[in-house]
Amino acid sequence: MSQPLPLKRQGEHDDGAAPIKPSRLKIALSSDDADKKNANKRVKEVEICVPIVYGTSAFYLGRKASESQSHKWTVYVRGASNEDLGVVIKRAVFQLHPSFNNPTRVVESPPFELSECGWGEFEIAITLHFHSDVCDKQLDLYHPLKLYPEDESGPQSTKKPVVVESYDEIVFPEPSEAFIVRVQNHPAVVVPRLPAGLNLPSPVPIETGNEKERGDTKDHPLSQWFLNFSEADELLKLAAARQQVQAHIVKLRRQLSLVEGMPQLSKPPSTYES
Amino acid sequence: MDAKDILGLPKNSFPALEKKSRPHKESHRKPDGISREVYALTGGLPPLMPSLDSSQLKKKPPSHEKITWQWLPFTNSARKDNLQLYHWVRVVNGVPPTGDYSFAKYNKSVDVVKYTDEEYDKYLTDPMWTKEETNQLFDLCERFDLRFIVIADRFPSSRTIEELKDRYYSVSRAILIARASSSGDVATHPLVKEPYNVTQEIERKRALSMVLSQTRQQERRDEEVVVEAKRIAELRMPAKAVEESQLAASNAVPEVTGRAVPGETASPSNNAQLPPFTLPDNASTIASLRILRVYLRTYALDQMVQATTSSAGPRTVKRIEQTLLDLGVNLKPRVPTKAVCAEHLELRKEMLTLLNLQKQVQYKEAEGSPFCDGSYNEAPGTPKDWTFIPDSMNFGGERVSKKDQKRKGHGHPSSAGHKRPRKKASEF
């Protein structure tokens, strides 16, 4: 019969003796469970990354605005290329300002978003819970809700929302085999080239609530306002900066070696500036 | 002959007298007899060991005794010859002091075992050692009181200290056991209980010398391996992991050169996933990130940046940030992908290197020409007009700074044979 492991130990492997290969669970199991347990094996050499964008989009309600509800806003977590995050995230919990009714809002299926009406800006805490084969720890994000545009001149537009988004990447440093296998080809997840000789079990689909509804945000009503995040610009800037710095380092090194080579000078009148 | 003799003070005047006067002197009052500053030289506290009772110091020597000092001969029982030397002796009422030379009692020596030839042949023969060598060894041991370093030096054939020790201790042990009437008698003797272990000793000394000769970098790496091991040990099996990684730590030291993470498993995974780091600080950051199981890229970058600049002061960090801004780079990348974060981190490290080099050059120049404008300039480390492009260094006049360069160049013997650096007043 299957031998239940305590939850904490699931997927852990021992260290020390084994050199290079991914370590194996040294627990005697019956053959039925061997597959299941192997699926929980962690692969150290593979780092799975899920690029996400999270933020808020707020519309001024204009004529419909009241004292207590001047804006309608949405807080969301989406895939960076608008792919369905439901493959990784099981649910998202949005913690709102205590002045809201039921400030803890749980979203069980993608798209992970929440809309509300209000008048004030505050920090929203977003907690992501992952599927069991992904990670048993949760991840916290924080985002300040912004309702009022930077440019304070002129009346607020009801057509154009105030959008603040942040790009980030969720990193799983030692994913389980089951996870790798399940998301290997999914567009929302970045899986690097797997090391040769890695034998993965066959994928086991996870239970999701609504299989029918779309979890991606490609045609989301707010998608026209989504910001673009391209790493190309940043990479270029960084490369240019590095080049400059490196060039200066070379110069300084040269100068340093020259100064060191020179004998100590005392009072060279020609170089004394008054 | 010590101070007390000369002053004529009784040698054992400490007990009750001290106890009474000491306690209320413990407080912070100024002690009598000496000024407060002098008292503070002792550390501000009364000395733990009562040294000299100050009240006794003012006493005059007892007047009813007649003290003279005489130049008299003496012998030393510790000497084997009958050498007679002279010294000053305190004579009381015409009676010189009796007793042996006071330092004779310090002439202690080690009891080195002496074996007979029969005993040798019976118990002590050894393929690696001839009888003659063993005899020589024991002779030296006796002469030099088991100072094996000296013995090894004087030993006619070249033997290592460990070999000599091994031979000496095993012979002594064998003799001891052989001579004991029953095994129970000597079982508690240290030689019998814990015999000398040659291989262990050699290993121990090797490890010690390795630790001594470790460079700072290796020390740091060792630390992180131990840290990582500790963390892993807390998560997984306790005892086994710690042992193994400690061994690995000391063994990894000579082999690791430029490898990012020694780790207790020589896994190439780290090198495959992350760009090769040369600073050892990152290794422990990576380890701690792993343990989180899930983290955000921005968080990871933040940790790495902190680890890198942990050695730098806050002013340096500010300068790096200012430089980043000057170059149009976001302090926190807007699109923190893996590649961007790696580049960002490398850039920061390079800036740190650059700043350090700058400082070095400044110091060198300040050293080299103290009478020149080197001293006019701000002292290194207070860069008021410092900008990223150090044009005051004046390299061939090729690059003109983007910002206002009000600062006068040093009058330093610059490279490329430049004479006077010019004032750079404006940008192009």
Automatic annotation (TrEMBL), chain A:
InterPro entries (alphabetical): YEAST_sf, YEATS, YEATS_dom
Annotated compartments: Nucleus
Domain YEATS, chain residue ranges per copy: 42-186
Keywords recorded for this protein, A-Z: Nucleus, Transcription, Transcription regulation
The keyword Transmembrane helix is assigned to this record: no
The keyword Transcription regulation belongs to this UniProt entry's keyword annotation: yes
Annotated segments matching region Disordered: 1-22
Main location: nucleus
Name of the protein this chain belongs to: Transcription initiation factor TFIID subunit 14b
Organism name: Stylosanthes scabra
TrEMBL record, chain B:
Pfam families reported for this sequence: SANT_DAMP1_like
Gene assigned in the entry: SWC4_3
Region (Disordered): 1-36, 383-428
Key words of the record: Chromatin regulator, Nucleus, Transcription, Transcription regulation
Residues in Myb-like domain copies: 125-174
Skewed-composition ranges (Basic residues): 404-428
Keyword Cytoplasm: no
Protein name: Swr complex subunit
Source taxon at top rank: Eukaryota
Organism of origin: Stylosanthes scabra
First and last residue of the signal peptide: none
Cellular localisation: Nucleus
